Every structure is written in structure tokens, then in C-alpha cells.
Amino acid sequence: MSGHSHFAESIEEYLEAVYRLEHEGPGVTTSGLASALGIAPASVSGMLKKLDKDGYVEYVARGEVKLTRKGLEVGVRVLRRHRLAERLLTDVLGMPWDEVHAEACMLEHAISQRVEDRLVALLGNPQTCPHGHPVPPSDLSEPPRTGVPLAQIDEGRRAVVSGVTDEVPEILRYLGEVGLRPGAPVRILEKAPLGGPVTIEIGNERHAISLELARMIVVANDGT
Question: What would the mean pLDDT of 137-161 be, rounded to a whole number?
């Protein structure tokens, strides 16, 4: 698959989305994939049938979707190049982390193996994208999963931000403004009952964030 025709890019985007939902989400269903891609469920069903016929996925109507080895190779390749492109855009070109996702979506289809190898060398073989998601290993092995949602950390505990699950630009801009980026130390001061806000401390500043947002922020408990 060259990745340069519109149809080939569409296939790559499907397989990339299936990989993300299969490895980083709740599993893959037609409705979940439609939501992730912003496409009507009927259109998704049609494409999944073709991908199944071509050997990229195993698909049961109204059921779950799983990548075959052939599909896994494409999904990993595209997502790997996407996240390397995000690193290039932030680390080298200095773009804000809330702007790089859309740009990387375009670049991921144009990066060759030779360019990927150069990116890995230039960037120092990064293990995560700017948002904390793992860069899938080229050998198709399972990337390490670390961290839990900030909402699960008890009051009084400290943690270190490792990533954010949602790459919506408005959310990323806010998180950047308050300092909730990967690597930032945070302490949980108070968790309001009945789904109320979570009060946290970053540096010497206190912030009250919604429980929904606290569920999007992934942290590693530092044991204190």
C-alpha cells in the first residue's frame, strides 16, 4: 500500500483508528469506530466488510473488530509515523501541542520508511508523543501501559502527569495553561463528593478541575 492515493489513505486511517481503539481504548465496535472517525455507521460497516475481505481485519456484523497481522502492520506503521511527526512538530519546529495532531494526520501518510528511520535518529527514539501516548514499537510488540486516571488518585497523594487521553485542542490549551503536561508533578488536595470538582496543586498554584477532565489526565503515582 503506497499510502499516496485518497483511497489508500482512507484505509490507513481506518486501520490506525482500529489499532488505537483496540490497544488504547475499550475495544472496537462499529459505532465506536464511526465516532472516532466522524463517519456514519453505515459507511463504516461497508469499509469494514472490505477490510475483512482484503484480510486486514476480522469483522462480525454488529460485533467487534480485530486487526489481523496484516492489518496490525499497517495500523502500527501509520500511528507510529503520526506520533513521530507530532514529536517533530513540537520538539524541532516548536509548534504548540494543541496544534500538531491535525498536521500529523496529513504527514503520517507521506512519511517513508527511510524518513521514519531518520526521524527516530533525530528525535532520539522517543517512546511517547507530546500528549503522552506511546509510540508503537516497529516490531509490533505491545507498547507499555503505565498510569491511571488522575480521578483515581486519593486525596493527599502526589503523582506525575504521564499523558492526556483526549487531544481536543481546547482541552490541550487549557491543560497547557495550568501546567498539566507530561512530566508535571501534581498533588491531589481535595475530591468533592457526588462527581464534584477535583482540587489539585501544581507548583504553588491550586486549580479546581472537573471530574470529567480528571478522568482524561493519566498520571503515575509517585508513591507519596
Answer: 92
